[in-house]
């Protein structure tokens, strides 16, 4: 048996940063080194990462939601091994495969009953691109409405629906006829749709950038308006789907039935990229309406056997291990514990979320010494304080987390759905200590703040 990859890994162990600096994104290497995240990870299991010193880290990023099952789940590994050992014909193209049919069947069983057709692709951004095309063709309209601060991917069509300026700047001109409305604003949506010239309203049920939750009536009213004006209602569940929020789909919290659901990330099982669009039969039949249009939209690798097997195994694990229910339970434990910290610390202003999609928002304090320190950070770079939470969580408590978006003091947790009660206690104890340290001025964390301020000011000057 060849040891080619094993030999490469042994030879280049610890050289990952050097390789990336030389051949990939140099700036990413600089960022990781500047904030002390330059670890050499050597293995991973479930929600945990291990470095070359065998230190254990709790991963609350889960690859931006990809590792809902944790890393290296044995059920998914076995499914992939089964495919490799079966010598199946793959991507024959002038053929249709069994595994893609089975995954479509299993996915649609878990969708609202108005959705009966499935399209597979390779990523969330590809799912968004497909939704744009399908919506335009089905309705014979050009306009797409999306929400401010939304995130739908970074390919050109998806980028045109991106609500954050930093991702869009310099890449234009983008797709025409894409209109932004404020999230959670029904009047603005009504105004955008009432001329009956909008193909689709594409929305995240819970916005990933900031973990912004809708009011209880927003999504049902949005769906009603879309139906009224002949606009397709598209739920982007690329991050919220497959149990993340304590329901299989986030839209279930509000009883909404979209015309399309977009998913990806967790469906991969953490191994093989896969995306999907669940849709009504009306949409499928409109786009693929004749035999000569059977290949009018597709993706070369989209229904490959490895991806389909990973998706099937992922659904099996979610069901067998009751991960949707666990996400709801552990999310409630975390939010309850975090609320106690909100009541305890003036810098900690809100904990919000559903299931295991959680945001911690920090804001300006009232006490004089803290307010002066806070204002120094905010003047240097808006949203800088959140780094004073994420960096100590990582360095002192070996918890990997992220800032929820640019220019906001919001920290975001997306734990794997397989975390345990021990992990929730680890998170809450670490947060208590880190936030308490932030209330000590002067103190070690505020020394970190000075360093962050210095880096921010140098970046602006440069």
Automatic annotation (TrEMBL):
Cofactor(s) named in the record: pyridoxal 5'-phosphate
Signal peptide positions on this chain: none
Protein keywords: Aminotransferase, Pyridoxal phosphate, Transferase
Family to which this protein belongs: Belongs to the class-III pyridoxal-phosphate-dependent aminotransferase family.
PANTHER family given in the database record: AMINOTRANSFERASE CLASS III (PTHR11986), BLR3010 PROTEIN (PTHR11986:SF121)
Superkingdom of origin organism: Bacteria
Pfam families in alphabetical order: Aminotran_3
Protein name: Ornithine--oxo-acid transaminase
SUPFAM superfamilies reported for this sequence: PLP-dependent transferases
């Amino acid at each position: 048996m060849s040891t080619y990859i094993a030999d490469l890994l042994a030879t280049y162990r610890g050289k990952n940063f050097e390789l990336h600096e030389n051949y990939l994104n140099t700036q990413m290497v600089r960022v990781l080194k500047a904030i002390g995240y330059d670890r050499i990870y050597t293995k991973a299991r479930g929600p945990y990462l291990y470095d070359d010193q065998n230190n254990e880290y709790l991963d609350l990023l889960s690859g931006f939601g990809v590792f809902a099952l944790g890393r290296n789940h044995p059920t998914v590994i076995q499914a992939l091994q089964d495919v490799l050992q079966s010598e199946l014909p793959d991507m024959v193209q002038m053929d249709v495969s069994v595994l893609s049919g089975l995954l479509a069947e299993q996915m649609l069983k878990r969708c609202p009953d108005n959705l009966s057709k499935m399209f597979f692709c390779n990523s969330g951004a590809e799912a968004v691109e497909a939704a744009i095309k399908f919506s335009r063709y089905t309705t014979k309209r050009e306009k797409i409405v999306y929400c401010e601060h939304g995130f739908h991917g970074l390919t050109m069509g998806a980028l045109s629906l991106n609500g954050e300026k930093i991702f869009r700047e310099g890449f234009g001109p983008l797709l025409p006829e894409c209109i932004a409305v404020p999230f959670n604003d029904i009047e603005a949506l009504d105004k955008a749709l009432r001329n009956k010239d909008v193909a689709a309203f594409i929305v995240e049920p819970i916005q990933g950038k900031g973990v912004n939750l809708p009011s209880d009536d927003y999504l049902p009213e949005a769906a009603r308006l879309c139906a009224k004006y002949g606009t397709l209602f598209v739920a982007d569940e690329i991050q919220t789907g497959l149990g993340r929020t304590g329901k299989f789909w986030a839209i279930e919290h509000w009883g909404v039935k979209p015309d399309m659901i977009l998913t990806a990330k967790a469906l991969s099982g953490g191994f093989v990229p896969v995306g999907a669009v669940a849709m009504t039969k009306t949409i499928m039949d409109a786009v693929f309406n004749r035999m000569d249009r059977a290949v009018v939209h597709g993706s070369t690798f989209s229904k490959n056997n490895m991806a389909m097997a990973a998706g099937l195994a992922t659904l099996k694990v979610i069901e067998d291990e009751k991960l949707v229910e666990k996400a709801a339970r552990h999310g409630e434990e975390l939010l309850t514990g975090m609320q106690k910290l909100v009541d305890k610390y003036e810098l900690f202003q809100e904990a919000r979320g559903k299931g295991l999609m959680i945001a911690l928002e920090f804001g300006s304090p009232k006490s004089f010494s803290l307010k002066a320190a806070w204002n120094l950070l905010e003047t240097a770079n808006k949203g800088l304080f959140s780094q004073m939470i994420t960096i100590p969580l990582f360095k002192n408590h070996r918890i990997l987390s992220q800032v929820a978006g640019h220019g906001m003091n919001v920290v975001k947790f997306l734990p794997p759905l397989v975390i345990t009660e021990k992990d929730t206690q680890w998170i809450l104890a670490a947060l208590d200590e880190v936030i308490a340290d932030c209330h000590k001025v002067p103190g070690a964390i505020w020394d970190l703040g000075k360093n962050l301020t210095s880096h921010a000011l140098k970046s602006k000057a440069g």
